[in-house]
Amino acid sequence: MATHGNGRDPRLLPEPQGAYAHVVGWGMAVPSQVLTNQDLAAIVETSDEWIRTRTGVSERRIAASHESTASLGLRAARNALEVANILPLELDLIVVATSTPDNVFPSTASLIQDQLGATRAGAFDLSAACAGFVYALNMAAQSIRSGSIESAIVIGAETMSRIIDWRDRGTCVLFGDGAGAVVLKASESDGGIRSAVLRSDGSGRDLLILPAMASPESQQPGAAPVGARLDKLQMNGREVYRFATRIVGESISQALEKAQLDIADLALVVPHQANFRIIEAAARNLGVSPDIFVSNLERYGNTSAASIPIALCEAIDAGRIEEGDHIAFCGFGGGLAWASMVLTWTGRETGEPRPLGRQRRQLTYARAGWRRRVRDWERQMDDLVSSLHPRRGRLRRLRRRFERQRLE
Ligand code: ACO
């Protein structure tokens, strides 16, 4: 590989100008409702034995009717802010990686922004299927490294149960619901996100697909394969499996090379949780023990963009990550899209103690709730006044807009 006089590969990212993006907070949330393999065997022609031996999944969590991608993401985000001990007002950016947003727009990130009371944060969703969390984390980290923002929360959240065809045994046994989040913060100290390699191959677009309402496929009657539903996930499992076993090891090696590290330097790999056989194949390809790969798919199945942050939270809780460890993430899925990232773990910030952090966060959440209710009420009153006195309604709206502009 060509190098510059200083020994660095010229294709590498420039050295950060003082700002490193550190993970300083983490949190997860899963629905309490458990669906076991035995439960599934009562719905489709399958068995606990088939599912466990082919995928490694024993049970998964399913969102209750009052839960949504936004509500799970919100819970994970609040838990992550607790660990980071920062206030929602200090967040500059909220990114939600998801394939199951509550709406096409507004973004799930905007819904979470409102409920957190993060009134100084930009918010958007990112769509890269199961690779979404690593893509989103890299986007946020690069914004910090460039100096454009100082803090961000990156959330992977999914309600896969809502896009599953529960009659299709080839897919319904694989997926589950949940959310995980990490808080990123700028720091002068070395560490945090070191490298990332993002890749995509759209020629595999039909291997794993959920057509959107505006897609040509959904406009054409009979375009879906026989028996498949256009509003449900469709997958060619065998091809996706082949793709995943090929790229996971390769992608992690590329991210390691970019970080100028070796596989032996890694303390832990947190891969997307799709199938334990994919994890075993990746370990074989990299020539390492599968033990350095985190696996929790036995309990949650494939939670798509949420799987890496959930597995990360559990690995931290289990004491599997220590300060100074180099760890890798690898996500892969629909697109086809895949991404790996290498980071150096620094853990919680050990700066100035921040008294009453929890109480101030609770107050911010309560204030966000009141603000939302007042806004809703104002709009309802406005509509009522407009319908009774069209001229007065318009005048009120103009006056309120003028007052808001003055406050801003
Ligand atoms: N129970 C019982 N039998 C089943 C089931 C089931 N749930 N599902 C499929 N079978 C049958 C098939 O019909 C087939 O029967 P046949 O031989 O009579 O035709 C047989 O089992 C073997 O089917 P395969 O599809 O070849 O099974 P395979 O060993 O490939 O495992 C699986 C299927 C688990 C889906 C595997 O291909 C896989 O894990 N693929 C990757 C999927 C994945 O990770 N997707 C998510 C990517 S992330 C994202 O972006 C959302």
Task: Sum up the structure in keywords.
408 residues, alpha/beta, 5-stranded mixed sheet, 4-stranded mixed sheet, 39% helix, globular, disordered N terminus, binds acetyl coenzyme *A
Structural class: alpha/beta
Total of DSSP H or I helical runs spanning 4+ residues: 13
- Small molecules held by this entry: acetyl coenzyme *A
Shape, please? globular
- The SSE string, one letter per element, is EEHHEHEHEHEHEEEHEHEHHHEEHH
Task: Please tell me about this protein's structure.
By secondary structure, this protein is an alpha/beta fold. The protein has helices spanning 37-41, 48-55, 69-84, 108-116, 132-145, 169-172, 216-219, 237-258, 276-286, 297-300, 307-317, 357-388, 390-407, and strands spanning 20-29, 34-36, 59-61, 93-97, 122-126, 151-159, 177-187, 192-200, 208-209, 234-235, 266-271, 326-333, 337-344. Strands 1-7-6-4-5 form a five-stranded mixed beta sheet, with helices on both faces. Strands 8-13-12-11 form a four-stranded mixed beta sheet. Strands 2-3 form a two-stranded antiparallel sheet. Helix 4 links the parallel strand 4 (93-97) and strand 5 (122-126). The radius of gyration is 23 Å and the shape is globular. It binds acetyl coenzyme *A. Residues 46, 50-51, 54-55, 129-130, 169-170, 173, 208, 235, 237-238, 240-241, 244, 274-275, 302, 304, 333-334 line the site of acetyl coenzyme *A (ACO). Acetyl coenzyme *A binds next to helix 2, helix 6 and helix 8.
